[in-house]
Amino acid sequence: MKTIHNINKWSFIITLVLYITIIGGLLAQIALGAIQIVLGIIILFHWKKLNIKTKRHLLLYWFIVLMYGLLWATDTFNTWKTSSMVLDPYILFICITPMLIASYSVYITHQSKTIIYELKPSYL
């Protein structure tokens, strides 16, 4: 789980750095989303090792990801597009919300790393 957290953390940091160039950040955000979905599935395989608090966070994370994905699939926010993208709510939907979800994923992997590390016997 430590490896999962490190991959997640560094992918998140790289995406934030690439936001210096907005296009680079948006493209990195796509890769970050794919990485985090794969890591989330891997964490599901360790479900029994997680405590109740981390399980609740993981369920909430998947609910948020599915709701966000459904909003993209239904193109709900397409009506918000205007000729001027300054302070447009669409910017919130395509830039800020995914990074908030990503930061929550980093928090969950940190929590799962800590919990599973504590469960290891001292002789290992």
Could you characterize the architecture of this molecule?
The chain has helices at residues 2-18, 22-44, 52-74, 89-119. It is an all-alpha fold. It has one domain. The longest helix has 31 residues, at 89-119. The chain is globular. The protein starts with a helix and ends in a 5-residue tail after the last helix.
Biggest sheet statistics: none
Low-confidence stretches: none
Proportion of strand residues: under 5%
**What's the multimeric state?**
single chain
Q: What does the average pLDDT come to?
A: 84
- What Rg do the Cα atoms give? 17 Å
Tell me the number of helical segments per DSSP (H or I, 4 or more residues long).
4
The tally of structural domains comes to 1
Q: What coarse outline follows from CA principal-axis ratios?
A: globular
What distance separates the N and C termini? 15 Å
Gist of the model:
The chain crosses the membrane at residues 12-45, 57-74, 90-110. This protein is mainly alpha-helical.
Task: Outline the secondary-structure elements.
Blueprint lengths: L1 H17 L3 H23 L7 H23 L14 H31 L5
Keywords: Membrane, Transmembrane, Transmembrane helix
What structural keywords apply?
mainly alpha, single chain, 124 residues
